[in-house]
Design goal:
This protein has helices at about 1-20, 155-160; strands spanning about 25-30, 50, 55-70, 75, 80-95, 95-105, 110-125, 125-135, 170-180, 185-190, 230-235, 240-250, 255, 260, 265-280, 285-295, 310-320, 330-345, 360-370, 375-385, 395-405. With about 400 residues, the chain is mainly beta.
Length: about 400
């Protein structure tokens, strides 16, 4: 409560001070956040309110929604949710040194997290330094997750329940980008603190990488002293598409304590491929991501804890109306659809030779209205099916969701 009071007080002081500043000293970036850029640019591809005589810029986004979902005919009725509010603070310390932080409040204030707080030092287009709390670039969604950029209320299940969405750690690394006419090539390479044994020792009952996010001590110490390596390479043609290939891996267990060997070093390794493109003529936007997870699970664990997982999603967004509407000159109406799938346990039961279940699939048609590129009002219909580890009959969930997300 003390932390919450301090944060709220600070926000109030900033807001009050900003309101008293002459409007001629303020400058708001009119950034089109729906414009396609490389995913590595997402952290700075946001609108900010800056001050002409102060080297600090402020921004953020908010999203809230209503939903009515039912599972096998059982429903909790109408639910209103305040999903998240996120604050950005950016500062140019020098012409080649900049700082950005991102603080997120989820489900009201049920969870408060520092997702990004890093200093960037530009030395050369192909060699730049970054250090602090870094968002590991596995796949594309982990870096490019802001609500106003998406036509869907829920984040992809593969990115939130298989991969740990908004997964960040303390560390440092290098990144760079090179232009050549319509071609862009980029890379990122980081060493950070890593996972812990919560990914298999949890109350979820399956191998679960997001469970490691519960360990807040990763921001001050490594669980086992072995760095987590995250690397990504991407290539983009402005007329065709961007394709990224990323890897994240390291030791997750505590194999030694005070010089006493407890276990062998057990690794978690993740490989992901992502793609985004806009089809010329129709302006259809396609975004896709697929990831494979491999975990060295001890032989003493039951087969419900998977050593292999895979999953991903594909989003298709089609603009159908691009004309002024209700006084909004840049209004756009989109129809969209998301297909997603996650297999939390690839393999067969040793005793029977039959396939292990534990998988999920969903289709989410949507319609959205963007009065401006920085604000989206969206309606989704979610239809999903889940099969448990024993391949019992399909559990179906379906219903409507409606809400909004906007930068501010």
């Amino acid at each position: 409560m003390k932390k919450l009071f301090l944060i709220v007080t600070t926000m109030f002081v900033i807001g009050t001070t900003t309101a008293q500043i002459d409007s001629t000293l303020l400058r708001r970036t009119a950034k089109d956040t729906t414009k396609t850029m490389m995913n590595m640019d997402a952290v700075y591809n946001r609108p900010f309110l800056s001050f002409t005589k102060i080297p600090v810029a402020l921004g953020g986004y908010v999203e809230a929604n209503w939903q009515h979902l039912g599972t096998n005919g059982i429903t909790e009725g109408h639910q209103f949710q305040m999903r998240r509010m996120t604050l950005f603070v950016s500062s140019s310390l020098y012409k080649n040194i900049k700082f950005l932080s991102e603080i997120e409040f989820e489900d009201g204030t049920k969870e408060i997290s520092l997702e990004f707080a890093a200093v960037d030092m530009t030395l050369h287009p192909m060699f730049n330094l970054r250090g602090g709390v870094i968002m590991n670039p596995i796949g594309a969604f982990n870096q490019n997750h802001d609500g106003p950029k998406w036509e869907f209320i829920d984040r992809p299940v593969s990115a939130t329940q298989m991969l740990p969405a908004t997964w960040s750690n303390v560390g440092f690394g290098v990144y760079g980008k090179k232009y050549s006419k319509n071609w862009l090539m980029a890379y990122e390479l980081y060493l950070t603190n890593g996972f812990d044994d919560k990914i298999i020792d949890n109350n979820i009952g399956r191998t679960n990488l997001p469970a490691a996010k519960q360990n807040r001590e990763r921001f001050e110490e490594s669980f086992n002293g072995v760095p987590l390596l995250t690397a990504k390479a991407a290539i983009r043609n402005n007329k065709i598409a961007e394709i990224g290939l990323s890897y994240m891996g390291g030791v997750y267990n505590k194999f030694e304590d005070d010089g006493v060997k407890l276990d062998k070093q057990r690794r978690v390794d993740v490989v992901a491929i992502d793609m985004n493109t806009t089809i010329p003529g129709s302006k259809t936007a396609v975004t896709a991501e697929w990831a494979w997870v491999h975990v060295d699970v001890p032989a003493t664990y039951t087969e419900q804890y998977a050593s292999k997982q895979q999953g991903g999603f594909i989003d298709i967004v089609q603009p159908v109306y691009k004309k002024p509407l209700f006084g909004f000159d840049r209004s756009v109406i989109n129809v969209a659809c998301r297909l997603e799938y996650v297999d939390w346990n690839l393999g067969k039961f040793k005793s029977t030779g039959s396939d292990i279940g534990d998988y999920y699939a969903a289709v989410v048609p949507a319609i959205s209205w963007r009065p401006t590129p920085q604000t989206v009002i969206r309606v989704n219909y979610r239809y999903s099916g889940t099969v448990d580890v024993l391949n019992n009959p399909l559990i179906k969930t379906a219903g409507f969701q409606a809400g909004f997300s906007s930068y501010f």
